[in-house]
Amino acid sequence: MNYGPLVFLAAFFALASSWCGFVLTPQLQIGRLQQTNTVGGAGIAYPIARPGLAHQGLDVYRANGCAYCHSQQVGQTGTVLDIALTDAGTNQATTVAALLKLAESATNQPSALTMLPSFQPGSSNAITESILGGLPKAFFRSTTREAANAAAKALNSTSAKVQLWVVPVGPDITRGWGGRRTVAEDYLFDTPVMPGSQRVGPDLANVGTRLPDANWHLLHLYAPRLEVKASTMPPYRFLFEKRKIGRRPSPGALSLSGNLAPGPGYEIVPRPEAKALTAYLISLHADAPLFDAPISVLAPAGAPASTNAPAVPGAASTNAPPTNAPAK
Amino acid sequence: MSETSSPSQPSSTGTPEVARFPIVPADIDASCRIPLVVLFLSASVWLVIGSAFALVASLKFHAPGFLADSAWLTYGRVRPAGFNCVLYGFCIPAGLGVALWLLARLGRTRLALPGLATVGALCWNFGVAAGVWGILAGGSTGFENLEMPPYSARLVFLGYLMIVVWAALTFHQRRERQLFVSQWYLLAALFWFPWIYSTANLLLLTVRVRGMAQAVIAWWYADNLLVVWLGLVGLAAVFYFVPKLTGRELHSRYLALMTFWMLVLFGSWGGIPESAPVPAWMPVSSAVARGLGVIGILAVALNVHATLAGQCSRLMAHPSLRFIGFGVVAFIIGGLMSAAGALSEVTRVTQFTWFTVARDLLNYYGFFAMVMFGAVYCIVPRVMGIEFPSAKLVRAHFWVAAAGILLLVVPLAAGGIVQGLRLQHASLPFNDITQGTLPFLRVSTIGDLLIALGHLMFLGNLAGLVSRFYRIRAVSAWAAATVEIKPAETRP
Amino acid sequence: MNPEPQQSLPITAEAEPQAGRTAVPVWLIVLLFLMLYWGMVYFDSHGGWFNEQVYAPYRNFQEVEAWQPVTGAPGLAQLGKLVYNKPTCVACHQADGKGTAGQFPSLVQSEWVQEPEPGRIIRAVLYGISGPFQFKGQSFNGAMVPWKDALTDEEIAAVLTYVRTNPEWGNKAPEVKPERVKQVREKTKGRNQPFSQEELLKVSPAD
After folding, report:
1. Taking the CB of residue C38, how many other CB atoms lie within 10 A of it?
2. Buried/exposed code over C105-115 (b: 16+ C-beta within 10 A; e: otherwise)
């Protein structure tokens, strides 16, 4: 019997099935995505295409293979609800009493409700100030909506204003690499998309949020060990130019000292590629609240509701690294 | 023994009686000679270049400033260049060479139009050279396992088409109508690559799809190439050489058929990683497919074990068979590592770590390259008619390669698991975790060194054989020419 | 047969390998079916049934919906859902938004509803619609009740936001603010007639 055509047909249908599954269907589902709106109130279009220099930086990222050491995907293992107060209300004593009652039930039933580390009850009278200082603040965390609603109801009976914050959790998020998991919309306008597959270096999906300083990035590219002790990242000195100082030092020259300094009369100036790459890194954010990846966005007290300032609630209570230029 | 003469035997004069005479295997081998020499020799050169790049990349972990001032040799360019050299420069051409020979032999027919297959091989090599040059120059596409720029992709595709058309023609002309197991695998593989390669190049580089769909297609392509294509060709060689060199019958064609179906149906769905920023059904489908791969692995293990009648020591008897036996074991272990990725608890730990790299290396160095070495050590003496210059070097190559692969893969896998477990604890500073993988990387660099050494041995042996063959030919041709002249001169 | 590597290989006397016909062991087939069953169960519980809005760790669309953030003050969309079901719109357009064929048009992924600017749709709600109408390729010839007296600007903005941003219906248009409704109401002050299709088309949505 001539099996040749049968083999061919078998192979054809097998490959056709995976082609339909992983080429055709993704194109239909995510290849035709358009900008979407954020959820949770503001309704702002997301994502925005990267500005010109950042788009060129994407090209530098691709050409130098940064994706072989850095991933750009944040993972999430679960979601919880934080019970938070935005306003202490007119009668602070009753608010504190309600909080303490909830703290008691949290200690009795830790599976339903847990206290957050930022809430230190102690005795009720002396420390009303410390409990209710620094609002809006989250006090309890629950893993189900029923428990959260019950707790919110208990607090609602006082005059305080309660909010339920949706907070994604996972090791990546606790490490400060992002507020929520990354989804397809975050990469909508990137060509090519380089989600990376190795974490020899830290994840970069939100590096623009935690390291927004261009100088930090330029110094790090020139000499990684300046910013990160014993780093295994190679120095990218070819992205910089060593040249003689002209009539006055260039404004963009790196400030180096010790044996990294270029010597008297010389300066290190970033090339356009370095500047573009830095602009790209600073443009990396993946924290907007979307339907696919819900997260509560905290509007600062008193600010108008339509600001585009997505700070992650509860960030102060985690071990996130400092977001500004590091102390030297 | 003197070299086999070129196919000038009476059976090729084209008389009608020819069809009734079976073609002698020597004929078949001789018809394959030139394309196989080009394919295997160029493949081994690429292998040496690729492992040199991989060694440079590996050394950069221990001295980050090593060669860092050159943009062409930065880690992000040298590493993909090395992988592409090994994958497109060695794995696929060697696989094609073995496929051509197997199809000719199993069909008991001469290779059709070997000249054009040779042109295809040369075209392929030009393409790979242009591609690797492009990666080092900063023109990488950004997609893993598809880094070669579009201009080289076209050359590579053209070369492949030339080779595959003539393979299909050879298959069509076959005199042995009963198909052996290996032929199904090879037919499927020959057909597989053009589809996945053209889809990936069209949708990712020509008519670019938008957003995350690019990554999904890139993952689909990489999985189909590394798991399905290499698996099909490698297993074809295993199912041919293990019975042939042990003189026994392959245990069960039905088990081989089952493996074929498992690989072809489920292997092609396994590409999407668990962490991917895509809707949940994609990584879940991949996880299910990877889990089901365990059936195919069990079937191969059963088949090979039963073929040897339980005496696996037979594998060590023949030098070529050692390589193939090592390859089978690597296939089984690598497949189990992959199947473990069906459980999300496991992938949560192993994703983004050196474990995934170790699994890939085990697949194409441990399984495919070793099986190809075994096959080439078997095929080339038959095709050329002379033995390798040094049999000791063949044996030494095996031990060096085996040691190298063990020293490369085991520390990376272990280091990856440690790295992954520590990444789960957010309180551990990230830099400490990376520093903690360095001791494992130091051992794996030694593995890289040994592997590169083994490849040099392979190239040396092969080049020695080819040069000896052509030297002998040249000498005898010269002797034949001078013999003719003398009687004319001395005639009074 | 273990040919010595130093000897010449017998080139002419080689036989090609044969494959035996032993059957596949039964336990392997059983294992295959067990794994297929596991695969189906796993996909069912974790796969989100091919829904493109379900990402791990959420297991299905309902779970994603359940975890959507609800701000302290009910948002426009939540208020709009209440207004829709008061009953005001639900009586004709139904709770699933699909209406009734031939009588009341569907709001699900309708091109009228999802226009980037809400000028036309605000007018439709304020003053109603009468006369023949083309909605998503189907024609209707009914009448829509004017709501300008029954609903406030805020309620109209809320219900339009709910309809335009309802993820279950797949509508993805921007929301409508109460000021916008007020603006349209000012512009069309004094009108008492429902809109017909031609009139509505003459109005620019940005108006």
Report:
1. 14
2. bbbbebebbbb
C110, C114, C117, C123: CA torsion to nearest 10: 40
Ordered domains of chain A (ranges, CATH)? 49-75+176-282 (1.10.760.10), 78-169 (3.30.70)
Residues in chain A with CB shorter than 8 Å from the CB of C69 are: 39-40, 164-166, 289, 294-297
Let me know if residue B91 belongs to a domain: yes
Please tell me the distance from the alpha carbon of residue B86 to that of residue B71, in angstroms, as a whole number: 22
In chain C, which residues have their Cβ closer than 8 Å to the Cβ of A295?
Answer: 69
- Give the amino acid at C183: Q
Please name the member of C20, C49, C51 whose beta carbon is closest to the beta carbon of B249. Answer: C20
Mean pLDDT of C43-64: 90
- Domain total in chain B: 1
Which pLDDT score, from 0 to 100, does residue B88 have? 96
Q: Which domains does chain C have, with CATH numbers?
A: 26-66 (no CATH), 76-202 (1.10.760.10)
Interatomic CA distance for residues B289 and B294, integer angstroms: 9
Q: Which two tokens stand for residue B155?
A: 């050359």
Cis peptide preceding C87, ω within 30 of 0: yes
Number of residues that make up chain C = 207
> What residue of C is the nearest CA neighbor of A289?
C69
Q: Show the domain range for B139.
A: 22-178
Residue type, B340: A
Give this prediction's pTM: 0.82
Quick: pLDDT tens for A191-221.
Answer: 899 999 999 999 999 999 999 999 999 999 9
Minimum Cα–Cα distance from A192: chain B residue: B142
Is residue B117 a part of any domain in this protein? yes
Its ipTM equals 0.89
Q: Is the peptide bond before B439 cis (omega within 30 degrees of 0)?
A: no
What separation in angstroms does the CA of B201 have from each of B85, B218, B290?
Answer: 18, 9, 25
DSSP H or E segment with residue C159: helix C153-164
- Indicate which CATH number applies to the domain containing B119: 1.20.120
The chain B residue lying nearest C7, using CA atoms, is B387
